[in-house]
Design goal:
By secondary structure, this protein is mainly beta. The protein folds into two domains: about 250 residues, Jelly Rolls (Sandwich), CATH 2.60.120; about 130 residues, Jelly Rolls (Sandwich), CATH 2.60.120. It is built from three helices and 27 strands. Strands 15-19-12-9-14-7-6-27 form an eight-stranded antiparallel β-sheet. Strands 5-24-23-26-21-20 form a six-stranded antiparallel β-sheet. Strands 1-18-3-2 form a four-stranded antiparallel β-sheet, with no helix packed on it. The radius of gyration is 23 Å and the shape is globular. Bound molecules: fe (ii) ion. Fe (ii) ion binds next to loops.
């Protein structure tokens, strides 16, 4: 949903006949958002996309269906995803860690590739490529991705991710009803404004349609796993489901590399949402990138203690020095729920005065809907994280837990 894009063949007017050489009439398909009032794309299939030869319910343990764990004490959480062993492909290796009414968070560390396609009917997906690279193949074409790219995949897209051996580490958001570019970054004409932290030029678009390749895609039948209502079904097609002659529209996957995000710095500390990159109705997703920090001579660049009482907050740490957090490493996810104040670890607040730059690289999300941990997240959790704010040298008489 960036701007209009087009690949391949399509008729001069929508909803008119398009025939291939030999006279075959192509089947037009509209993918529309918000009923028929939102952005849309029109695709031209060589065979009707309704021609399925089978459908069955399936489960992918750890990914879907998934339920929150029974016990959810209100405390600051630390999920050590660096301890999740690489396994499976982009679907079988996907692990859902945090669930909310509007934004789920998971991690995948695929070490193999699969013929199976996926279609998320619950929400838009935003993959963040912590390490590795590969290509997304979809009905909209080929879209290569590389380390530190976001890959935004619209709801309803038939696609698969193929990673370059030996694998990749991927963070994955599923946002409902959508994940979009914040409207405040656009002018009245829909163009990204010069105030936005990125421009149209920063986004990678599908470059070419996917041609069926027997060696790469295998023989029929083809499987498309679809997700709707948290449940999975496997749909079987006897024809290649990405067999598209052309399309145009404003709904299609894009990539955006986090290093192309233009950070803003203030005289004094700016709230973290100044780093907003993508947004939904009830959440934002933000990029923390290396930058010059606040430049008032008495500025305290380290974040103050804060109680953002309406939103839960998570951070996925990628690289650099995480100056305000103790015990955090690359691939850690911290969850600081509303209702519990959080802030810098002891010592880091004062040490930050006079700092001129930060090298941190991290992805943050704030969500109005409370997150619940899954059983997989509990297995990866550092249970002592909540208590790591205790000063290691407490004042005399200070209370310490046993
Ligand atoms: Fe925070």
């Amino acid at each position: 949903m960036l701007h209009r894009h087009a690949l391949g063949d399509f008729p001069r007017k929508p909803h008119t006949a398009l025939r291939e050489a030999g006279g075959r009439l192509l089947m037009e398909q509209m993918i529309t958002r918000e009923g028929f009032h939102g952005p849309y794309s029109i695709l031209y299939h060589r065979l009707p996309p309704m021609q399925e030869s089978g459908v069955e319910s399936i489960t992918l343990p750890g990914f879907a269906p998934v339920e929150p764990a029974a016990e959810q004490p209100l405390r600051r959480r630390h999920i050590r995803t660096q301890n999740l062993p690489p396994a499976g492909d982009y679907l079988t290796g996907r692990r859902t860690l945090l669930i909310s009414a509007s934004l789920d968070v998971g991690v995948a560390k695929p070490v193999e590739n699969t013929r199976t396609f996926f279609c998320n009917g619950d929400g838009d997906e935003l993959w963040f490529v912590k390490s590795g690279g590969g290509v997304l193949e979809s009905v909209f074409g080929r879209l290569p991705f590389r380390e530190h790219d976001y890959v935004l995949v619209p709801k309803g897209t038939f696609y698969r991710l193929t990673v370059t051996p030996p694998g990749a580490t991927l963070l994955c958001f599923e946002g409902r009803p959508e994940i979009k570019i914040p409207s405040e970054y656009r002018n009245a004409w829909g163009q990204l404004s010069d105030y936005a932290p990125y421009s149209h030029r920063d986004f990678g678009l599908p470059t070419e349609l996917v041609a069926y390749d027997a060696a790469a895609h295998g023989p029929p039948p083809f499987a498309v796993v679809m997700k709707r209502g948290g449940a999975l079904t496997r749909h079987t097609f006897e024809h290649f489901p990405l067999d598209i002659a052309g399309w145009d529209g404003a709904v299609y996957p894009v990539t955006f590399n986090i290093h192309d995000y233009q950070p803003k710095t203030g005289l004094v500390h700016l709230p973290p949402t100044i780093h907003t990159t993508f947004a939904g109705t009830r959440f934002v997703i933000c990029s923390f990138v290396p930058r010059i920090v606040d430049y008032h001579p008495q500025a305290i660049p380290c974040p103050y203690a804060h109680a953002s009482v309406d939103m839960d907050e998570i951070l996925f740490y990628v690289a650099g020095n995480f100056t305000s957090r103790r015990g955090i490493d690359s691939e850690s996810i911290s969850l600081h729920p509303a209702g519990v104040t959080h802030g810098p670890h002891p010592g880091t607040y004062e040490q930050s005065i006079g700092t001129q730059r930060t090298s941190e690289l991290a992805v943050m999300a704030d969500c109005y809907d409370p997150w619940r941990l899954t059983a997989e997240a509990l297995r990866l959790e550092d249970p002592d994280y909540h208590l790591t704010w205790l000063d290691p040298k407490p004042a005399a008489g200070g209370w310490r837990p046993e």
